[in-house]
Write a structure and sequence with these properties.
two-stranded antiparallel ribbon; single chain; eight-stranded parallel barrel; TIM Barrel; 294 residues; 46% helix; 16% strand; 10 strands; alpha/beta
Length: 294
């Protein structure tokens, strides 16, 4: 199996930038960050967080992108890209805002095309849609609102595909806090793929199926996994319980990964974890399902 890592750990980046007391963004080098990630044992895919361009201006300059291409030639790894998600809402009914979000996504696709990512991970809905999907209204009313917002999302996706002329199957829509069965209709309509986020499912953000049920239902479209543990939150806990090392939540690690081995899944499994948690997770996999590391 092919394991990867979200190479840009924001905690590590912040520590690096503020290492001298005052912020110094010149200390950040994306190529060095990716190299450090790829040189970890069993890691052969680097997921680039496109949002970094907006957080650290010019961090994805033409020179930086060329450096990522050269690094790929040197080390032989693959890339995926997580398209911008913070402040992005492709499903908003506010057309000027929606147009700006589309513009942001299109700009990052065009900027990072030279690294030839296997998949472009996309949140087809955002925080506003998530909030509306949790309204304390009758289910029929909430479902109608969700379908309305999904229509706006579909319009945004159509515009992204039109402006980039990208292969729709390269767009991997992630299961997030929004009813995924509704999102699946858009995926089928436009021939998109799926990024299966395990922690989001385990914490019941996108539905209440088991991991195996979700895999069997959607495996025809799944191109990538975001791999981390989680669980449905308890009454005393606030927020989601996810993005934890494997073996610390409710994931049936051996049963699930053996299903992927049986199905000969070729896509990348991207750890959305810190480097230390990646090592912890790989050690757990080695203990309970060594077949996945062969």
């Amino acid at each position: 199996m092919r394991f990867g890592h979200t190479s840009l750990e924001f905690g590590k980046i912040v520590k690096q930038i503020f290492s001298g007391g005052a912020p110094d963004i010149s200390k950040f080098n994306i190529v060095d960050q990716v190299r450090s990630s790829i040189e970890m044992e069993h890691i052969s895919v680097a997921e680039i967080t496109a949002e970094i361009q907006y957080i650290i201006p010019n961090s994805l300059s033409e020179k930086a992108v060329e450096g990522l291409v050269d690094l790929k030639d040197e080390l032989g790894h693959a890339y995926t890209v997580h398209l911008p998600l913070w402040s992005i809402e492709l499903a908003t009914f506010n057309e000027p805002v929606r147009n700006g979000c589309v513009e942001s996504i299109v700009a990052m696709i065009k900027k990072l095309e030279p690294i030839e990512p296997e998949a472009w991970v996309l949140h087809s809905t955002g925080p506003l849609a998530a909030e509306f999907s949790q309204l304390n209204y009758p289910k029929s009313s909430v479902d109608l609102i969700c379908m309305l917002m999904t229509g706006f999302s579909a319009t945004s996706i159509e515009e992204i595909l039109s402006q980039t002329e990208i292969d729709p199957a390269k767009i991997a829509v992630e299961n997030i806090q929004f009813p995924f069965d509704i999102t699946r209709d858009v995926i089928d309509e436009y021939g998109l793929s799926i990024c299966f986020d395990t922690g989001h499912l385990l914490s019941q953000q996108s539905g209440d199926e088991s991991m195996l049920e979700f895999w069997k239902k959607h495996r025809d479209r799944i191109a990538e996994l975001h791999l981390h543990d989680g669980r449905a939150s308890k009454p005393e806990e606030r927020g989601w319980v996810d993005h934890n090392a494997l073996g610390t939540g409710d994931m049936p690690v051996r049963e699930f990964l053996m299903e992927l081995v049986k199905d000969d899944f070729k896509g990348p499994l991207i750890f959305e974890l810190s480097s230390d948690e990646v090592v912890q997770s790989l050690n757990h996999i080695e203990q309970v399902v060594p077949e996945a590391l062969e």
